[in-house]
Please model this.
Amino acid sequence: MEAFYTLQGEGAHTGRAAYFIRLGGCDVGCHWCDVKESWDADHHPKTSIANIVAGALAHRGRLAVITGGEPLMYNMDALTRALQEVGFQTNIETSGAYPLSGQWDWVCFSPKKFKVPHPSIYPAANELKVIIFNKSDFAFAEEHAARVGKSCKLLLQPEWSRREQMLPQIIDYIKDNPRWQISLQTHKFMNIP
Model:
């Protein structure tokens, strides 16, 4: 769908220079999705792996973040291999709705209630990032936290349109459950992509 060089705005790598590769296509259907234009892959031209890598190499940062849409709708083996061969760290942001493919340096798993995650995502997750839209999402977060590895970073992130309502609840929850940390969409505060 698009590629751009910016700062990672959320999650464990917040603040790092990153080349984002956003793939078109998603059937998860989150009503609060902030990139709904990514859902229909047919609205976006196909791009070769060579062109994607060339675009990434035009920038100094060597962190490539593959996101979507839902990137695991596609096999990620060739793309991650090509990026790693030229020195990129490869991170993915995924709902985990499809089997894990690709070679990843970091897996950000952000499950959604609208589509059950594939079992292959749980042992691979380096980061569990749960979007908090309402109070029931805390129980949803705990369900998935019970299935990831012990070293997986646990993050709660307020859904942007409900941040004022949910932020106080997230803060209190983390104070009571200190294995969790907060993730804020800092790129939105900075007004960058």
Notes: The beta strands are 2-7, 17-22, 63-67, 89-94, 106-109, 127-132, 153-158, 180-182. The helical segments are 49-57, 77-85, 121-124, 137-145, 163-176, 186-190.
